[in-house]
Design brief:
The chain has one domain: TIM Barrel (Alpha-Beta Barrel). Helix 2 (about 50-60) runs parallel beside helix 5. It has helices at about 5-10, 50-60, 70-75, 90-95, 100-105, 135-150, 165-170, 185-205, 230-235, 255-270, 295-315, 345-360, 370-380, and strands at about 30-35, 65-70, 110-115, 155-160, 210-220, 245, 280-285, 320. It has an eight-stranded parallel β-sheet with strand order 1-8-7-6-5-4-3-2. It is built from 13 helices and eight strands. About 45% of the residues are buried.
């Protein structure tokens, strides 16, 4: 079955639009979006990942973010699919042969962000051994080549990254403690290997009409603006990553606009220059306001404030955490959700739905961000 027929059969056709910046060679990016990683619940017999992707398409988003790893892809709970196929031993195996993952990658999203953790290298980013470098490189390289070959001509942009890196460097999860001995050098080597794999795959694989990038994710920024050990201050100046994702909860606790602007600008100041990539290279990979602390309307209003801030600063993406809650229990949910465990769509879902409905009606314009901020203010009654 052709991809177009598959999309039609799934009822997942997404309108074809030019890029918001007027460059028709790049896929449209509506900037705002959400993600489906480790949800505690699902409601159909479909694989949780596919169920989630269909809902995100129904929402109207052009962005899909998920994870591929041994832990995240297979299991009984908080997994993409509930049964493990032991024959799938690499990222490429999962992307090409596991039905739910392949179906999601084939869907007509314009932008995919993937936490990619190779199966063959066993250590963590902070304990990355010299003996694992070739394994990590080879699996990331093969995965990147597969994506470039498979989605050549589709207009997709794909970004390969990882979860909150400052916790990879702090297995004790204590921001007041520094990196364990050897962790900084290991993490730098890990990022360099992954970036090289993506760069080499792009060099070696014909790939017109598909774009592929590599990113790292930071999550401890605001407390370290004036110094202190963190990825932004210590790692970014040593590596040549394409993009940086900011999981920005430390900037959401007080003055959202002021703190986010300060943190995003600080991250950008530490990036090595990459003239081949236009625009800002720091995006908001996670933001959210859990229902355990906020009412549904507060969750929505604060999310609108974060969206507006990200748009005005110039973030390539502003991604809400997340479709289904991944924390707590049924009795004590975390409440990081667009749809709660009773299958009730929250106000923040409706805000995104109405925004995407508006965005798809807009003609190509260099003023997309400015107009999007006006629309979000309207949606929020601001």
């Amino acid at each position: 079955m052709s991809r177009n027929l598959l999309f039609a059969a799934l009822g997942l056709l997404v309108p074809t639009l030019e890029a918001a910046d007027g460059d028709s060679s790049m896929p449209v990016n509506m900037i705002l979006g959400t993600q489906a990683i480790g949800g505690r619940y699902h409601f159909t017999e479909q694989a949780p990942l596919l169920e989630s992707a269909k809902l995100i398409a129904e929402l109207g988003s052009g962005i899909m973010k998920f994870s591929i790893s041994k832990q995240a892809s297979f299991g009984k709970t908080k997994a993409n699919v509930l049964e493990r196929d032991e024959s799938l031993q690499t990222l490429t195996d999962v992307a090409s042969r596991e039905p739910a993952h392949r179906a999601v990658l084939d869907m007509p999203f314009t932008h995919f962000l993937i936490w990619a953790y190779p199966f063959t290298s066993k250590g963590s980013a902070g304990t990355f051994k010299v003996s694992e470098r070739e394994l990590e490189y080879r699996e990331m390289y093969d995965f990147a080549c597969h994506l470039l070959r498979t989605y050549r001509g589709t207009g997709k942009s794909l970004y390969l990254g990882h979860w909150e890196g400052d916790w990879h460097l702090r297995p004790h999860f204590d921001p007041k403690q520094g990196f364990p001995e050897g962790y900084e050098a290991s993490f730098v080597a890990w990022l360099k290997v992954r970036q090289q794999a993506v760069d080499d795959a792009k060099r070696d694989t014909p790939h017109e009409g598909v774009w592929l990038w590599h990113y790292t994710e930071v999550n401890l920024v605001l407390p370290f603006l004036k110094g202190g050990q963190c990825i932004t201050n210590d790692i970014l100046p040593q590596v040549d990553v394409d993009y940086v994702s900011y999981s920005c909860y430390d900037s959401l606790q007080k003055e959202i606009r002021e703190d986010l602007f300060a943190a995003l600008t600080h991250i950008e100041s530490k990036l090595k220059s990459k003239p081949a990539i236009a625009g800002k290279r720091v995006f908001i990979g996670e933001y959210g306001f859990p229902a355990r602390r906020y009412s549904a309307e507060e969750q929505n209003q604060k999310s609108i404030e974060a969206m507006i801030t990200g748009l005005e600063w110039g973030c390539p993406f502003v991604l809400y955490w997340e479709l289904y809650d991944n924390e707590g229990t049924t009795e004590r949910p975390g409440g990081f959700w667009m749809i709660n465990e009773r299958n009730e769509k929250q106000p923040v879902w409706e805000t995104h739905r109405r925004f995407f409905e508006w965005a798809k009606r807009q003609p190509p314009s260099g003023r997309f961000r400015e107009e999007a901020v006006v629309e979000l203010r309207r949606l929020g009654g601001l």
